[in-house]
Each structure stands twice: as structure tokens, then as C-alpha cells.
Automatic annotation (TrEMBL), chains A, B:
Region named Disordered: 1-28
One GO MF term attached to the UniProt entry: transcription cis-regulatory region binding
Boundaries of every HTH tetR-type domain copy: 43-103
Natural source organism: Albimonas donghaensis
Name by which UniProt lists this protein: Transcriptional regulator, TetR family
Keyword set includes Transcription: yes
SUPFAM superfamilies, per the entry: Homeodomain-like, Tetracyclin repressor-like, C-terminal domain
Pfam families: TetR_C_33 (PF13305)
InterPro entries: Homeodomain-like_sf, HTH-type_TetR-like_transc_reg, HTH_TetR, MT1864/Rv1816-like_C, Tet_transcr_reg_TetR-rel_C_sf
Composition-biased stretches (Low complexity): 11-21
Length: 233, 233
DNA sequence: GTGGCGAAGTTAGCGTTGCTCACATAAGTT
DNA sequence: AACTTATGTGAGCAACGCTAACTTCGCCAC
């Protein structure tokens, strides 16, 4: 059958199905997605796909995400991903890992900015969580909203990262309570705080506050929760 | 071109793509989905489709939901829904309305069971919310997790129902605080409580507590939050 | 009853998706 | 230079959402 189009779509690779007005100002080469020059092999297709999926998820929402679209953006055929990932869910799992890592960093940074342990530092932690969600709404939705479809019992890495995030909170609550090492009370309060902040993030992202017709000041809410829930020492 | 199969798949309509082990014990006729007898017209296809979608969502999760599957379950062709609904999202919106109505009833009932206003009644409200979510995990996910894709500016009904739910909570918090009519403080605290309870629901349903490796007693958490957040009078 | 009309079904088919196959190419090792 | 192996390609499958054109049947006027 020979070869109809030997080195495929030449160079311009950023054509994610619809025009995407002006979207990324990537040049002809060197953009994060496209293959290097006109090479047959991509270089790092796995990461390029994850990045493409991420930008598509942020641009159009999870529900409109298609792997085909990401392939178009990366400038490869729609069969290429399966050399690197088992299936669609596997790609999303890789994206999740990226996200959990970033979230953890963001929280650690925020905590370090507050000198002493206590409600204020916990509030800062919560605000960092919320800020990350608002800055990466699509990714956040994938990270926390697709557990059922992405769940893979063999994938321990993702769990470990998520657990590490939890440990940060528990440690901080323990420090605020003066428990060292953090005990049962710290554990319980950490869960309550995470639950609250996560609720704020999801309700914000999903537009549920608006839908319910209420106006909220999420930062004020976090401050209030942190100070009322964590008893003063 | 004549008629190949005049009254289509005779009677047995419960064949939603895969066997569905034992699933619904519906008889040959009279099940909630299938058309009445072998009639060409269904009777109430709109409701039957919503019901079918609901059971599929609960059985397989939102991500695996297909309208075709619901059609198979209702015993109609895959083009039939579009006589009643604009598109897929329209069907899901109808399902959401059903859910919000039920949720509201559940909360109202739970509140009525506690004699006096106060933290205990608020906790009961929250537990009812959580219980509804746990009893209808798929539906709950659709109701709150698909705002972006289901959003329709012309659909005011759904918003009204969601707002009505919020008003219940605000009124109860107002009563607990002794504010009548409920003021700004009641409003803010109601948002905080909803946020917390909603967070508990989503983290539970998505399996995030498990993923993070923590064990939680959600009822105890709700009690704690209600009592610490709502100041004693 | 009869006839016509419109609502609510039908089949056929389009374009897209996720994924698999057999094959082509390039990179690296010997 | 030859062989091996990782990584790409195109063709093609079944399923999906949705449209178009046609058929069936309930209902209402007469």
C-alpha cells in the first residue's frame, strides 16, 4: 500500500479540532506539544500528550475532552498514545499525578509563609488549596471527580501522593493543637478542615453557589472555619 | 420498504447492553421502563427515559452512561428521545430536577423530626443531605458535578429548586441563631455548613477519603461542625 | 364509522470517539 | 552494515450522539 504522506502534517501541529482563537502563542517549532522539527519520532510524546490533555481540559472542560483532540494538538496520529498508555484513563491518571504534586507544593509553600502554627496557617493552607482549584479548574475536576472511572488498584503512586497531602494537613493541625506527634483529635480536625475547604472548592468550580443564588466570600469562610473549628490553646 | 419488525422487540425490554446480573426484578410487562404491552406508542417515554438513565447512572456510573443504553432499556430506538428532549444534556437536566426535588423533601422531613431549632436540627439536615448522596451516588454526581456541561441559561426551574433548598438551610440557621428573619450571619453560616456537608458528600462518593488513606466518621464530623460553628445562644 | 392531522415512533446514515491491528520508520547496539 | 526494538502510521471496528425522511397510531370533526 506504500506511503501516501511520509513525514505527516509537516510542521504546524497546533490544530486541536477547532480554531482555538489565538490560544497558545507557540511558534512553529518548540511548542510544548508538537514534535521536534519534522521528526518521525516525537521525543517525549507521553509528556506532550499529558500537557495537551491538560490544556484541552482547561479550555473546553473534561466532558468535551477527547484523546483524538489531544493527538491532533500534539501532531500525532490517534493511535500513537497507546504505545505509551494503556488507555484513556491511564493518560488521565498521569495528569492527576502531575496535579497532586503541584497541589502539594502549593500547600507547602503557603504554609511556610506563615511564621507560627495555628489557625492562620491552617487558613492559609486552605486558601492555597482553593486557589489551586480555581487556577486549574479542569484539572482539579479530573483529580477529584473521576476517582471511580480512574480507579486502578495497582496504581499505588497516586494514592501515596494524595496521602502525603493529607499528612501535611494533619501535621499542621497537630502543631496548632500542640499535639506532637499529632493524635486522634488532630486527625479528626484535619479531616473536617479538608472536607470544608474541598467543599468550597467544588461548589465554587461547579458554579453551585451561583446556581443556588447565594453570594459567598470563600476566604472569609475559610478564616471563620479555621478559627472556630480549631480551639484556641 | 415495508415493515421488517412491526411491533419491535416484542415484550422483553430490559436488555441494557450487557446482562446486568439479575438487576431489576421487573416482569415481562409493567416494568417502569418498557412500553405498555407491545404498543407502538410508549405512553410516557420522557419519564421512562429519565428513569432508565437514572438506573443506568446508578448501576454503571455517569461516565459509562449512554443514551442508547437507556433507549435499549426503555425498548425504543435510539432516535426516539429526540422527540422529547433537545439533546443528551436535556435529559440529564430533567433527571437533576427530579433529584433536587427529592433532596429537598428528604431535608424537610429530617428537619421536621427534630423538635427544636438549633445545632442538632442543623446536624440532622446535614446528615439527610449526606444520606441522600450516599443513597443516590450517581444521581448526586450528576446534580452537582455537571453544572458546566448541563448549564442552560434558559433553564430557570432547576435554579429555583436549588435555591429553595438553600433557603431551607438559611431559615434553619436563622432559627438556631434566634434571627427572625434570618440575617447576614445566618446567611454566612448556612453557606459554611452547606459547604462542609457538601464536601463530606463528594469526598465520600468519590472515594477520596479512602484514596488519601484516612478513616472518617462523617456523622461525628457533622455533629462536631454543627456544634462548633453555630454559637450557642 | 371515516378521514385527516399531528405527535411519537421507526430505519438509515453521518461524523466522531476509543482502541486494535498490521505495517513503516528511526534510533541504538553490535 | 545488519539486526532489534521502540515508536510512529493508516485502515478499520463498534458504539455513541444526533439528523433526516418515513411510518404508525391516537384523536377529533364530521
Amino acid at each position: 500500500m506504500a506511503k501516501k504522506i511520509p513525514p505527516p502534517p509537516s510542521g504546524a501541529a497546533a490544530d486541536p479540532s477547532d480554531p482555538a482563537p489565538g490560544a497558545g502563542g507557540e511558534g512553529r517549532f518548540g511548542c510544548a506539544f508538537s514534535r521536534r522539527r519534522n521528526r518521525y519520532h516525537h521525543g517525549d510524546l507521553a509528556q506532550a500528550l499529558v500537557t495537551a490533555v491538560r490544556t484541552l481540559v482547561e479550555r473546553d472542560g473534561v466532558e468535551k475532552l477527547s484523546i483524538s483532540g489531544a493527538c491532533r494538538m500534539a501532531g500525532v496520529s490517534s493511535a500513537a498514545p497507546y504505545k505509551h498508555f494503556r488507555d484513556r484513563a491511564d493518560i488521565l491518571r498521569a495528569l492527576c499525578r502531575e496535579g497532586f504534586g503541584e497541589l502539594r507544593e502549593a500547600m507547602a509553600t503557603a504554609a511556610a509563609a506563615i511564621p507560627a502554627p495555628g489557625p492562620d496557617r491552617l487558613a492559609a493552607l486552605g486558601k492555597a488549596y482553593l486557589a489551586y482549584a480555581e487556577a486549574n479548574p479542569g484539572l482539579f475536576g479530573v483529580m477529584f471527580g473521576m476517582k471511580r472511572e480512574l480507579h486502578d488498584p495497582e496504581d499505588t503512586r497516586t494514592h501515596e501522593i494524595a496521602h502525603a497531602n493529607m499528612l501535611i494537613v494533619i501535621a499542621e493541625v497537630g502543631a496548632a493543637l500542640g499535639e506532637d506527634p499529632p493524635g486522634e483529635e488532630a486527625h479528626r480536625l484535619a479531616c473536617v478542615l479538608w472536607t470544608f475547604v474541598h467543599g468550597a472548592a467544588t461548589l465554587t468550580l461547579d458554579g453551585d453557589y451561583e446556581a443556588a443564588g447565594v453570594e459567598v466570600d470563600t476566604h472569609a469562610m475559610i478564616d471563620l472555619a479555621a478559627h472556630r473549628l480549631v480551639p484556641a490553646r
